[in-house]
GLPGLI family protein (Chitinophaga ginsengisoli), 229 residues
Amino acid sequence: MQHFIRTLILAAGITCVQQYSFAQDKTQGVIHYDITYNIHASLKPDQMQYKDLVPETITEKAELKYNGQRLKAYFNDDIQKEQDGVNSTIKISSEDGNEKYADIDRKTLWWVDKSKNPPVLVEKPLFEKEEDQEKETESTETKKVLDYNCRKLIVKSKHGLLTVWYTTELPLKAGSPASAFVAKGVVLAVDSKRMSFSATSIEFVPVAEKDVTPPADLKTVKSSDHKGI
């Protein structure tokens, strides 16, 4: 009887170790973000007359799913808000859409252009330098985001300064819910005049390959050809 009890205890101990090992698998997961849009700072001169009808800032959710070095990033770009009895529809404009897929090893990014009828899948190099990007400056400054050590990167463009905080402590080599991708690591926070975001939680859970695979039923066009369609 004592031998039987010891066997049960040993088996239970092995089960606990296996469960703990699975829980620590960080090669798949979902990163949750809060994105804050500075609506007033984004208004054009001819839109300033509506300043008092829309909130100064709006915070929405975003997420990044990844499996190995493949990912899907998504945020809501069609926001409905009510303030003082006034309903507002706010459309977030993004040059590469609100639904993106990336294969880090292939250094390729795809985004869904829903403005086309039917929608198309636009393909371009993941780390392609934008035309309006003038300079990147690596800083020695660091800070913690969700207990991950993050390094600071300053990106200067014609739209202003972008402060990027990225970590190399996750197995994913690059990632972001918006357009900021860094070859060195995962972007957990960004600050700029018009928009900012920060990771709020990370779930290390299984992610199906289909969830990080670009839609196969959409026509794929190269970014160089996209402007002409």
Remarks:
- The helical segments are 2-23, 39-42, 223-226.
